[in-house]
Amino acid sequence: MSNVKPRYRDLMTPELLLWGLIALASKAPVAMAPLALVFFSRATPGGYALGATLASAYVLGEVVGAPLLGSRLGRGRMRPQLVIGLLCGAVAFGALPLLATGSPGWVIATAFLAGAGPAACPGGIRSLLTRLVGDRDVARALSAEAMLTQITWAVAPALVVLLALQVHPGAPLVLCALLALLAGGLLLRLHEPATQSTATRAPTSMSRAVMAGWPVYLTSAAAMAMLATAELVLPALLEDRAIAVGWSGPLLAAFALASAFGAFCYGLRRWPGAVEAQSLVFLTATACCVTLIVLLPGVAGIAVGLMLAGVFQAGVMVTRNLSLRQQLPEQAHAAAYSMMYAVQGAGYSLTATLSAVALQVATPATAVIGGVAVTLVITAICAVAERRSLRAPESGASKQPQGPESGADR
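The structure corresponding to this sequence follows.
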C-alpha cells in the first residue's frame, strides 16, 4: 500500500476547478426547483395545491428522464448530449414564469420537461469526474462531489425563499434557467476523456450491464428513503414534542452541512475493507443515528441524531458510487449513475406517500422507527444479492483494476 497521504490539494487543477463550476451550476437548479415551484405557484390562482403538483411533476420528470436519457450516454460522446439536456431544462425553467396565468396542463407539462431534460446530467457529470482523475484519486474526487452537493442543498432553500419573497415569485426559476445555461456553456469548454474500454466493448448489452448493479441502486434508494422519512416526518415530530416547527429549517441545514463534513472526512484517508463492506457499516450507523432523533429529548437531541446521521450518510453515498464504478464496465458508468439517481428519486417519492399514510395511523416517532426498520430489511436483502453477483463467474461486469489505492484497500 502506498504511503502517500491523500490530499484534496491534488484535485485543485484548472480542469477539475472548471468541472466544479459546472457541477455547482447544474446541481443548484435541481436543489432549488421543488421549493421554487411551490413559491411560484403560491402567487397564482392554483396556490399551494398547484405548487405540490408542479413539484411532483418535476420529480417525475427526473425519474423518467434519468434512465431513458442516461442509457444513451455510454454510446457516444457525452458532452453534446449533456449540453442539449441542460438547454432543454433552461428553456423550461425560463418558460414557467411566463405561464403563470396559462393553462395548468401546460404549466405541469413544462415542469415535467424541466425535470426530464437535464435528468441525465448528474450521472454524466459524475462519470466525467471519474475519468478526469486517476484511480488513486477517485474516492477523494467523489467525496468532494458529495461535499459540493450537500453544501448546495443546504444553501438552496434559503436562496429560494429570499428571491421569491424579496424579488419576485418567479425569480428562483429564472435563476435556475440562467444556471442551467451557464453549466451548458462551461461544459463545452471541458475536456471529455475517452473511455478506456471503448475499443474492447464487452458483448453484454448496455441495458444488461446497467441492470447488473441493481443491488447498489436499491440500497442507495433505501438509504435515501430512510433519511427522507426523518426529513418529512420532522415537522410532525417537532410539533408532537411541543417544539416550534420553525426549527425544521435549521435542523435540516445542519444535517446537510454535517453530511458535507462526513464526505470531507471520508476523502482524507484510505479506509480498511472493501467499499461494499464499508457501505453496510455506514448504512447501519446511519440507521442507528436516525433512531436517535426519536430517543433523545429536545431540539438538541434531534440535532445530534440528524447531524450524526448526515456524517454517516455521506459515507454511504460515496461508497455506493465507488461500488458501482467497480462492478460495471466503464462505458456503463454514466448510465448506471443515472439509473441510481432515478431510483433514489422514486424511493424519495414513495417514502413521501408512505410517510403521509403512517402519520395518519401512528405517531411521528413510530413512523420514523418503521421507516428505519423497512430500510434495514431491504438493505439486508440487497447485500446478500450483491455478494452473490460479485461471486458469480459470469456476471457480465468488469471490475476496475485494483491498484494500491483502489477501493479494495479502502
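The CA atoms of residues 123 and 337 lie 4 Å apart.
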